[in-house]
Amino acid sequence: GIQVEQSPPDLILQEGANSTLRCNFSDSVNNLQWFHQNPWGQLINLFYIPSGTKQNGRLSATTVATERYSLLYISSSQTTDSGVYFCAVEGYSTLTFGKGTMLLVSP
Amino acid sequence: NAGVTQTPKFQVLKTGQSMTLQCAQDMNHEYMSWYRQDPGMGLRLIHYSVGAGITDQGEVPNGYNVSRSTTEDFPLRLLSAAPSQTSVYFCASSYSQTGGTEAFFGQGTRLTVV
Asked: How close does chain A come to B99, measured CA to CA in Å?
């Protein structure tokens, strides 16, 4: 099956700093999604991004499908950005998840 | 619009008991799936459905059954609970977008088997 690797596994930032999270995948995929799991465990959709670049406020994502990676950029981080960030790739209507990047933003 | 609703939110079972985790979606999505989340493992696919009456196994199906009699509902049954099934369970529904499908998740069910 498809392998999904995320880096770094853990990240600690001070409020206001910028960060880049990476997702590598092993095969061609139909789709890639980024999720944020907040401290209460809820999975929140961030981006549906099979290719190209999208931006939503302080967050943006880029997927280069031909090179099998995606990047999630967080600018001017806030404490509410803390949690685990997952990328997930779609093979056939189901998702394969990476193990996530745990982000802690301190005041 | 409720989205994907899972019940219960928390459950404690004794080894050997059976139970059903409920999942309902009101978005008329054709695809539904169940995942489990264990520490350090990300989410892993248990079972999925591409439409009413059609189900298939995912990566970790042993010990679980599913059925899909309606578009809206996709219950997950634990036949004889084991401590290894202690986990957080997420249900998702998906719809077709350009090139693929986009998934939306319920709030999860935290299950403890003692």
From this structure: 6
pLDDT tens for residues B57-106? 999 999 999 999 999 999 999 999 999 999 999 999 998 877 778 899 99
Which has the closest alpha carbon to A23: A43, A3, A44, A45?
Answer: A3
Angle, CA A99 vertex, CA A98 and CA A103 arms, to 5°:
115
Does the CB of B54 have a partner CB in chain A at under 8 Å?
Answer: no
User: Residue A67 burial by CB count (10 A; 0-12/13-18/19+): exposed, middle or buried?
Assistant: exposed
Please list, in sequence order, all residues whose beta carbon lies within 8 angstroms of the beta carbon of residue A82, skipping any fewer than 6 positions away.
A38, A39, A103, A104, A105
B61 preceded by cis ω (within 30°)? no
Distances (CA, A) of B43 to A6, A66, B17, B70: 13, 25, 24, 25
Interatomic CA distance for residues B43 and B89, integer angstroms: 9
Residue from B105, B107, B109 whose CB has the most chain A CBs within 10 Å, to mutate = B105
CB–CB contact A31 B90 (8 Å): no
